[in-house]
């Protein structure tokens, strides 16, 4: 008996079964089987990252050194996340510590004054190499995190008795973190990081700087923390899933496109140079053998003499009737020669549009705006500029919180412990916990970096004033958006008011009047715009 075949329903492409087509297309073969050959292996982050880790970071380093857009992306991270001064705003958890708010404020003022004296010393005593202030170290850490995906700082102890504080820090390049003797990764030692069975880092293997290459490479194991809980080696990166040991640099998703754009720019420049190299050419009726002799060189003495004689005749002819392009005379060429003027051609040929498309893709991968990356603000209105600035501000604030602030807070805790032990600052007497019992509570702080870019200063100041007056914001938050500390501004305003009063000057009422006038004008403009719409 003939067996009947059960019909199979197919999707719109006529190839994929309807059951598979009705599911997620990304897991199937796709429309027309276009995804059938795309079968990437399912790997953990370490399995995908660590085998080519050194080469990937070396390529990112090369891009930052030799590619202007890559260097600009790093500069944007430094300027918008950190700025020119990374300011401490100490705020201990006074309720948890069992102290009064006024006691906490007084303690914070002492801590902030002592920290600024230590961290921003022009002699760079905070740095082992004596090259960086604290803000410079944070800027370097942010740049390091951008093109290496992570940052490392070693907390050290200066044994010289000439300084009040012995705490120092050393910036450590991620290139120096590797397995001892360059051995392969194992379960508990991956890419120079020793981890326990839970995946927490126990210590790091740091190799000595081998430049200029004649010294044998040595590794030193540095624990993550000392027995008392003090940080010994600071490692900051943003993991994307569990089990990740090292950070992935931000250039991985756009590295291929950036290198291709670099090659395209060089090729375009060479093409423009070649097209502009010759203003005119003279065509001559040479036979093939003579032309080849000119190009490849004559082999026999007879050929060389014949070519030399022919060139001499040409030179004698044109010396009597020189060919000039700048003069008014029309040259009379030798019989058989023709003068061809080379007109300048369009070297763009759609290149600018294609470059913009690539730069937008690269900017999206790097987390910055196209206008910021290309430094081209020609096509932006106020609305688009404000929307773009707010979007990039959110990205930079996330990086400030989880990269720059983490590095800064751990460095600050190392110093604060020593400052308390040396009685440079004194803990409130009624505190419920000691520093060792509540490190995070005593060291709780915020960090103020660069302010948000002002697109229209008048409108943004009006917005800040309205938010404060409506109770939706505070002076602290609005000043922090501008990169300022409200306490410093208030103290300076008090001093200026007292000095003006002592000098017999009137209070600056014109400033308030000017602001009210600008506010009314802005309101009228908005009403007229709404009526026109």
UniProtKB/TrEMBL annotation:
Matching Pfam families: Phage_portal_2
Gene Ontology biological process terms from the UniProt entry: virion assembly
Record-given protein name: Phage portal protein
GO molecular function: structural molecule activity
Superkingdom in the source lineage: Bacteria
InterPro entries, per the entry: Phage_lambda_portal
């Amino acid at each position: 008996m003939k067996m009947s075949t059960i019909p199979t329903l197919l999707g719109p492409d006529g190839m994929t079964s309807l059951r598979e087509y009705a599911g997620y297309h990304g897991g199937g073969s796709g429309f027309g089987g276009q995804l059938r050959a795309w079968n990437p292996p399912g790997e953990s982050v370490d399995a995908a990252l660590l085998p080519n880790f050194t080469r990937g970071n070396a390529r990112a380093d090369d891009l930052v050194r030799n590619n202007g857009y890559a260097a600009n992306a790093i500069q944007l991270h430094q300027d918008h996340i950190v700025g020119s001064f990374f300011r401490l705003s100490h705020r201990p958890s006074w309720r948890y510590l069992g102290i009064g708010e006024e006691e906490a404020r007084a303690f914070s003022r002492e801590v902030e004054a002592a920290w600024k004296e230590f961290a921003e010393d022009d002699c760079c005593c905070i740095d082992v190499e004596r090259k960086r202030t604290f803000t410079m170290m944070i800027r370097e850490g942010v740049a390091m995190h951008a093109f290496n995906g992570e940052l490392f700082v070693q907390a050290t102890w200066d044994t010289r008795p000439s300084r009040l504080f012995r705490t120092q820090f050393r910036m450590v390049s991620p290139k120096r973190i590797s397995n001892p003797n360059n051995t392969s990764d194992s379960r508990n030692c991956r890419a120079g990081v020793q981890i326990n069975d839970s995946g927490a880092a126990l210590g790091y293997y740091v190799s000595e700087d081998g430049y200029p290459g004649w010294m044998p490479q040595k590794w030193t194991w540095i624990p993550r923390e000392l027995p008392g809980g003090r940080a010994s080696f600071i490692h900051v990166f943003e993991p994307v899933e569990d089990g990740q040991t090292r950070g992935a640099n931000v250039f991985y998703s756009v590295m291929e496109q950036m290198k291709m754009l670099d090659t395209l720019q060089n090729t375009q420049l060479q093409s423009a140079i070649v097209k502009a190299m010759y203003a005119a050419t003279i065509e001559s009726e040479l036979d093939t053998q003579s032309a080849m002799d000119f190009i490849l060189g004559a082999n026999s003495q007879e050929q060389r003499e014949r070519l030399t004689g022919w060139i001499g005749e040409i030179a004698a002819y044109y010396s009597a009737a020189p060919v000039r392009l700048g003069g008014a005379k029309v040259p009379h060429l030798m019989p058989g020669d023709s003068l061809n003027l080379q007109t300048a051609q369009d070297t763009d040929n759609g290149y600018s549009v294609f470059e913009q498309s690539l730069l937008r893709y690269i900017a999206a991968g790097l987390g910055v705006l196209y206008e910021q990356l290309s430094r081209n603000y020609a096509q932006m209105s106020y609305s688009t500029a404000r929307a773009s600035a707010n979007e990039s501000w959110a990205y930079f604030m996330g990086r400030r919180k989880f990269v720059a602030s983490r590095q800064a807070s751990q460095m600050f805790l190392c110093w604060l412990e020593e400052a308390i032990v040396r009685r440079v600052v004194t803990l409130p007497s009624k505190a419920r916990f000691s520093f060792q019992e509540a490190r995070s509570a005593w060291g709780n702080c915020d960090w103020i970096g660069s302010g948000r870019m002002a697109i229209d200063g008048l409108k943004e100041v009006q917005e800040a004033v309205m938010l404060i007056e409506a109770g939706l914001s505070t002076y602290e938050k609005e000043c922090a958006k501008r990169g300022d500390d409200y306490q410093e501004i208030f103290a300076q305003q008090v001093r200026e008011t007292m000095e003006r009063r002592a000098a017999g000057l009137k209070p600056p009422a014109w400033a308030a009047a000017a602001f009210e006038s600008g506010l009314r004008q802005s309101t009228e403009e908005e009403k007229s715009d709404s009526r026109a719409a």
